[in-house]
Amino acid sequence: METEAFQKIDGGITIPKGFLAGGIYCGIRKTKKDIALIYSEKPAFAACVFTKNKVIAAPLIVDQLQLQKSKFISAIVVNSGNANACTGEKGIQDAWTMVNVTAETLRIPSEQVLVASTGVIGQYLPMEKITAGIKELSKKLSKEGGADAAEAIMTTDLIKKEIAVKVNLNSGVATIGGIAKGSGMIAPNMATMLAFITTDACINVAALEKALKMATDRSFNCITVDGDTSTNDMVAVLANGLAGNNEIIEGTKDFEIFYNALEFVMIALAKLIVRDGEGATKFIEIFVTGAKSELEAKQAARAVANSNLVKTAIHGADANWGRVIAAVGYSGIEFDPAKVCISFNDVPVLKQNYQIVIDEEKAKQALLEKDISILIELNQGSAQAKFWTCDLSKEYVSINASYRS
Question: Does the annotation mark 192 as catalytic?
């Protein structure tokens, strides 16, 4: 939540000083905006986290090579409607073409460009349209273009996902902005999601990488819609230092402040992805307490969040606590089932020693709400963790039965 150290403000990726963006339609999709560009007027330190899927899309292969060449990035070009995944050598060459055209158009070194794609797997990019789109878009970059970029990276998303915060560091004021896309094929270890975060904070690159990894583990790696991890997932953060604060290094108070603000931004974007889950009608928070370690708490919460039986029960407002405790049981953690307590939206349904205390009518009414909290008290230790998911509806099946058509 917000603190005195940082506050949420209006806007997204162009709120930090020195960042411009834009998004237009170039013809990849039928009608919607489908290409976005993010640009830093000063080369920025970059840190990225990529999917752990063994099938990696061409843009991510290119980006990993780019980050080996340079820690500075000036631009990110993104297309939607086509994932450029499972496209072999041609796909990789097409990703390099996007990099090179962007570099030439913006007159920046090619090693300072990252590329991302999202959409249908196994189709070649329409490169003539994309090349023309990049050239046109480069002329339309602006401080007002962040919302257009957020719209251009969407696929089955129904809402734009953007956020910005002001950060009160000890040595000055900085800002962080972010956009994301994601609605289906969402699971821990990244999902079919993209997130791009900008900041004008001056921060050491090692500290930036550490902050991004920690915040990813507590945000985008703590959400699931359907348990599927995609081929194109990435989170990238760019820090151009234009806020003029003293350089942030790990182990300082300013690092703690910056990290907490970054985590806030990333959790907010992660929750927006879950709320926009394909066919979702309910937002679900799984809160596991009393675990032996945070790792075990997260492991248990993940199992419950990924359970289709739990998700369908919540969709039907059925307080089926048996499905919850069963999911904890197969999560792989060591615990005493007799010590477990479970509640739905503060309505107790199970207490220790298998005391079934459910009031069916109260539980039903609680689960008719749009926001659902499942509290699982393990009573084994002091660690805790949260996971976020959504219900699983008939609409999810309908959306994914016709995704390519």
Answer: yes
